[in-house]
Amino acid sequence: MRIIILGCGRVGAGLVQHLSLHGHEITIVDSDPSGFARLAPGFHGRMIVGDVLDRQVLLEAQIERSDALVAVTTSDDVNIVVARLARLIFRVPRVVARVYDPPKAEIYHRLGIQTVTTTAWTINRISELISYSELEPIANVGDQVEIVAASAPPLLVGQPISRLTHPGESRVVAISRSGKTFLPQSGTLIEAGDLLHLVVISAALGRVAAQLRH
Amino acid sequence: MNMLIIGGGQVGSYLASLLLANKHHVTVVERREEAQDLLRRSAPSAHIILGDGTDPQILESAGVRVADVVAAVTGADETNLVITSLARFAFNVPRAVARVNNPHNTWMFTPAMGVDVALNQADVMAHLIAQAVG
């Protein structure tokens, strides 16, 4: 695909790198050429210095022949305006704008512009991570599997640890009890004050946290 | 009529005073606290809202849903275009007027961007001068 990226900050430059690796033909535009220093030395696409709202600059970037446009400048207003222009005037088939302000993003989404709201995403992700606080992270195995520790919730006391076994998702691998840590068997009963060590795949962290919530 | 002006600098303040003199009901949204003095002096009976005119919640509290005309006259063209497209397409305001700051940006001020009338100071002056010398 021929892709135009507007704004060569960290996200713009990162996108250039990622999309180039996948064989796309990239044109990057920024009003400040110093941003181009972020690009990897092997970048073979076009770099254009200019105002992204300038019609000549957009035409020079061959907006009329492009398959996609991504607006990731530092200004929400510029990203929104140029995304709408790309859709309505230049008929670019795929247009995405980064917007920081969540209520604005919501409205523009309704007006037909695909928006990415990094602020809302960050807030959700951090809230998620905080709500898993019952699970103390111990180690990551690769990027999909985590070892976590959690104190035994009262509801599970007297129950076998198999209650926490979900095939392919989670299982208890060790228990610390009265100063000693041991490897349990599937029938081992949970006691009050136990610290449970679990292996969990990342996607199941929410479910496991919910099960261990008091 | 209900006039909603976004941008209360020199242009917005003057526009508000003219509209008030013509007995319109005027609300002005201005982001900068320091601009409020001028605004209050030139348009004492305007309803003034401190806030960002591209924020849909601010527009709602400024009465965008009952406005007959929205005038986007801030000093930034992209801001004016965000306001006109929100006003027209998200809030169904019947008429939107926008100020063009940079003459190079005139091409963007189209009905597709929610603009019914674009006012370009440089353009007006150039035409007047051309007439005067022609």
Question: What is the subunit organization of this protein?
Answer: heterodimer
Mind telling me the CATH class of the largest domain in chain A?
A: Alpha Beta
Structural category of chain B: alpha/beta
Could you give the order of the helices and strands of chain B?
Answer: EHEHEHEHEEH
Which chain pair shows the most residues in contact? A-B, 19 and 21 residues
- CATH architecture of chain B, by name, is 3-Layer(aba) Sandwich
CA gyration radius of chain A, whole angstroms: 25 Å
> Could you give the distance between the termini of chain A?
51 Å
Please provide a written account of the structure:
- Chain A is of the alpha/beta class.
- Chain A contains six helices and eleven strands.
- Chain A has two domains: 123 residues, 3-Layer(aba) Sandwich (Rossmann fold), CATH 3.40.50.720; 80 residues, Alpha-Beta Plaits (2-Layer Sandwich), CATH 3.30.70.
- Helix content of chain A is 29%, strand content 27%.
- Chain B is of the alpha/beta class.
- Chain B contains five helices and six strands.
- A six-stranded parallel beta sheet of chain B has the order 3-2-1-4-5-6, with helices on both faces.
- The radius of gyration of chain B is 15 Å and the shape is globular.
What's the gist of this structure?
Chain A has helices at 10-21, 55-60, 76-88, 102-110, 118-131, 205-212; strands spanning 2-6, 25-30, 46-49, 68-71, 94-98, 114-116, 136-141, 145-151, 170-177, 180-182, 195-201. Chain A is an alpha/beta fold. With 134 residues, chain B is α/β, with parallel strands linked by helices.
